[in-house]
Amino acid sequence: MPAAPGRASLALISHPDCLRHDNGPGHPESPARLAAVRARLDADLVAHGRASWLEAPEAGVEALSLVHAPDYLERLERVAAAGGGHLDPDTSLGPGSLRAARLAVGAALLAVERALAGEGPSFCAIRPPGHHATPTRAMGFCLYSTAAIAAMAALRRGAPRVLVVDWDVHHGNGTADAVRREPDVRYVSLHQWPYYPGSGLADDVGCGNLFHVPRPPGLPPERYVRDLLEAVDRAVDGFAPALLIHSAGFDALRGDPLGGFTLEPEHYEQITQEIASRAGHPPALAVLEGGYDPPRLAEAAARHAAALAP
């Protein structure tokens, strides 16, 4: 994928090798998801000069270690060297998986660099997703905790405060666990409950930095939007973020096979704009998480990415 710097302020960061992570036939987290997103971004944004592609670099051990324990990283290497295998019932490691996951993290790190340098927002069109990976465990299709690593890297680069907003239909337990003792990172999550992974209750507040919004399936979409934005208001009260990270899962769309929420693609445009406004329009980036109806995922992701642009 050729880089096209300077063409537009919105960067779309990806790498062809993110398609090489293969969970096996019939698995919902398939390469078709990312292929659909990239094609839609090309048609809706790149073709009209509103965004340009950048190629993701591969994250190294130092960056991964900002969140993950050494023995966990070593375990992934051992499983990969042995030819791969299942890490939990729905998370697997194949020949291209570790490189794909490191490229996903590398995309987020490049997006952090761009944002903090004033170079504009980025949408990271990546896979596998990351928000279920804890510091010590792969789970929920996720190998590395991409959004959490990006947040910790931003602090290392001098950002005084980071806001992570996660609107995947599943609670980002890995992100929450990675940042729950870090007062300079605030994490907001709207998610279906009770549902996988069974965490994210409202009374789990971390060190006062976790803002969990568990909601049942089947509510009107306006209720989910309202409750998420109210949580963002609470999170930014007395906390002006220097960086906003969207943990951008699109499985809260109506009809997604792995969720029961009722959002439509236009709601993601609204959410993106409203969060930016309420947070004071800090530099922003997004990392792709879930979404398992490829055409609907692609439409919603394009609406969200367009709304990121200044």
Task: Provide a descriptive summary of the structure in words.
This protein is α/β, with parallel strands linked by helices and 310 residues long. It has a single domain (10-308), classed as Arginase, Chain A (3-Layer(aba) Sandwich), CATH 3.40.800. 37% of the residues lie in helices and 16% in strands. It is built from 9 helices and 10 strands. It has helices spanning 31-44, 61-64, 70-81, 97-116, 146-156, 173-179, 221-236, 265-279, 294-308, and strands spanning 10-14, 51-55, 85-88, 91-93, 122-124, 162-166, 185-192, 210-215, 243-248, 284-288. An 8-stranded parallel beta sheet has the order 2-1-5-10-9-6-7-8, with helices on both faces. Strands 3-4 form a two-stranded antiparallel sheet. Strand 6 (162-166), helix 6 (173-179) and strand 7 (185-192) form a beta-alpha-beta unit. Helix 1 packs across helix 9 (294-308), helix 4 (97-116) runs parallel beside helix 5 (146-156) and helix 5 packs parallel to helix 6 (173-179). The longest helix is centred in the middle third of the chain and has 20 residues, at 97-116. The two termini are 24 Å apart.
